[in-house]
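Predict both folds.
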Amino acid sequence: MKVTNLDERIHVLDNASNVMTVIKDIATSGVQEEAFYVLDIGDIVRKHQIWKQKLPRVDPYYAVKCNDTLIVLEVLAALGIGFDCASKTEINKVLGIGVDSSRIVFANPAKLASHIRHAAGMGVDTMTVDNESELHKIKKLHPSAKVVLRIRCDAELAQCQLGMKFGCDPTHEAPNLLHLSRMLGLDVAGISFHVGSGCQDPPVFHRAIRHARMLFDMASDLGFKPYLLDLGGGYPGNKGSSIDKMADIINKALDEYFPSDDVHIIAEPGRFYVASAFTLATSIHSKRAVRGDENSPNAITHNMYYINDGVYGSFNCLLYDHQHVTPIPLKNGCGKMTPSSIWGPTCDGLDQVVENILLHDMELGDWIIFENMGAYTLPVASKFNGFPVPKVHVVTDEGVWLLLKDALPLTEDHFVIGNTPANLRLGLDIGGSDIDGWTDPTIQLAPTEILADSSSSTTSFIYDYVEVDPLN
């Protein structure tokens, strides 16, 4: 077995294994020090089944910006999903796995000129617009484009509001854009909207669909033949969340305003498909005990834990996506719980993952797990201060393997059949010839006894932490 930097293949687990057993196997191997993800592609497949069941008239076009991990795109392409791309790089990534250009919507209302030229050259014709200058730009650079007017209809409560940046007023601005499109000889193919990412206001979809119907009728009166309705994003994807209320409102509104099948209805889900599929494992590399109670000067009042991933890495979602994360210690604790905070590895004081939480006492080398880490994490992660972006290990069960192993762009070569604990523990792939430059293949990476039985091995950390007095 060689150490390679090829993309991790999909490990088909037996019935006794799951995401948590894989995490424990890697974390307790004695050789794992970096943070890592475990991606369950079966979770993505189950989300797709839910989508098709709850929203049978709506074709999903996955928002690539949410998580552009290659295996995610390949799995979604194998399921027949379309793609919402925001740049020529995203377009290239999707086209590069064999997706036809007709399954791509260039859903960025403010596009760089070079990106419009590239879309035209690649046959990506459908693109969103919300302003006059964009129409003139498209007329000049891609006159055969299929224009989709994006209107603004904001949810009252959403994780990320988008209306402040994108979307034209449906009552005043949109009619003017329709008239300008007619003057320029552009083809208005339909209407789109985005109520806000992580929407918690389901009724907003009814208002948006009603506005779209009015604009469809206006476009038809101007001589256009609109056929596309894009419901945008906003669908939650964390464990325990549901799209049932949204789906009920959307389905009823579609039956009311778009009852016939002559309109192609799509949406742009992102976090719905990937949020719960990724679980992040981090380890404690440093610990600081704070004494701050003047009545008990020797008592520890707060523990500060420093982990090997932070807001410049996977937890950028705290800053940019307004997420809330819940730490789950891998080992069950005992005794009293102490007010604690969790910090990232960089030298920046902003790098705080959890501000205040009650935790059992933990030591160096202990692992902390974070679920629901698939949305707006990896695409934005950086290597600030020299800390690496966590590796992704990909797993699934036999049922999903049988479903996807012959569904292009996936093939049997994407899968490793059967559990491979040594392989997973070391974060390696099987086979390949692209050897990491830092690796000396003559060096034994771990004693065989560690790989043989991790359950009886002791922690590889031999240091302790230092208790300090409060800072002035």
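Second protein follows, with its predicted structure tokens after the sequence.
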Amino acid sequence: MARSIIPVLLAASLQAANVVATPPNIPSNAVAQTQLDALTVASAGSSSGYSRDLFPHWISQGNSCDTRDLVLVRDGTGVTTGTGCSISGGSWYSPYDGATWTQASDVDIDHVVPLANAWRSGASGWTTDEREAFANDLDNPQLIAVTDNVNQQKGDSGPEEWIPSRTAYHCTYGKMWVAVKYTYGLTVTSAEKSALEGLLDAC
């Protein structure tokens, strides 16, 4: 599991310079298409009862780090830390819009498949532990450091409503979204599937 390799991940990331990191386990084009074809198409479920608090996130990952810290370290360049796991320096390139930031406060950690979207597509029936695992998933392409206001613009939108402004990232974004939905057995709407097919066509 990810937690067992955290000290190694942190040390290696802090020592490396100019590392261009990406979320793990992004599928190949062919695998993403196979996964998309396997997804169940269904109408979006109700948002009734949804709360972000039902998806405990940025949990402790050991070594004085939480999930957000580890994604900032993974996705940044020249990241340094102060006391504990507080981020004291580095830069972050946001693949959604092509902006580079040197303050961690300008960066959000995006849930590629937003928590509310997951709720409407199957997570409403999960246990709290299952939702916590989803919200802090460091093993699949579900978390990525991006410009904060871009993440806020995205909100809980699916790809039928919002995609990154950088067309060069459309293929990767589509593959990440498909992989997460497939891994967690979440459904897609017909409009969402059509949008994902368009994104994979860009590969």
